[in-house]
Design goal:
The chain is mostly helical. It has helices at residues 17-25, 27-50, 54-70, 79-94. The N and C termini lie far apart (57 Å).
Length: 99
């Protein structure tokens, strides 16, 4: 262990969303992350233009927090974080415009 790393000797993941997906899943993981985010935001923006929903705004805010948290710490590859991510995605996909 390097002398500079004495404060966190058990650091086992990159504290960056793109690097984390890249080191765990390779280039395909980065592409998967980009595809998930593009699909999510296209659907969210499409719904937002058609209706106002506090749930929709909460889901969009939650995804922003997910991405911001991913810039400084582990954001996906833990069971509870993956569950929250896909719960968010699932709820967004079940929302219908105009209801």
């Amino acid at each position: 262990i390097l002398p500079e790393a004495w404060q966190e000797p058990d650091l086992n993941h990159p504290h960056n969303l793109l690097l984390d997906f890249g080191t765990r899943l390779g280039i395909g993981g980065i592409l998967l992350l980009l595809w998930l985010q593009i699909a999510y935001w296209q659907r969210a923006w499409w719904l937002y233009r058609r209706q106002f929903s506090p749930l929709l705004l909460g889901l969009m805010g939650s995804m922003v927090v997910f991405l911001a948290h991913g810039l400084v710490d582990n954001s996906y590859f833990l069971v509870d974080l993956a569950f929250a991510f896909f719960l968010n995605v699932g709820l967004l996909q079940t929302m219908k415009a105009g209801e």
